[in-house]
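ok here's Biopolymer transporter ExbD:
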Amino acid sequence: MQFDAPKRRGGNSSLLPMINVVFLLLIFFLISAKLSPPEPFPTEPPHSEAAAEAEGEFSVFLGAEGQLGFRDMIVAQGEDVDPLVGALVQAREEYCATTDCETDPAHLLLRGDQHVKATYLAGLLPKLGQAGFAKVELVTTRGGAE
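and the structure:
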């Protein structure tokens, strides 16, 4: 008794390695991507000659009109900043619940606009310090005024 050899399905077998590579790349980018929330309003950071890059776990935005933004909360200049500070405290506590903040404390990035007066910024720092952040870094762009 003789059996015929099964018919091979042709055509799609050459695509399988390419599909595998595409899925591996997709998984790589999904794992390596870091999602960040959108800025609540546009800011134009001040210029500096510092080469160090600011790093932090949380970002607070300070707009040209003096408005403060954290995640989806925006507080206009002159309004009470306590709800925003409370949101920062809660976010920091949630972060510290999963991370050892005793050895590596959480840092706060302040993304301020270059048109904000320094006196307003200086008055704002103690209020941000109430949130429990030991270090607040001001985000700047490299390059001085010409």
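+1. Residues 16-32 form the longest helix (17 residues).
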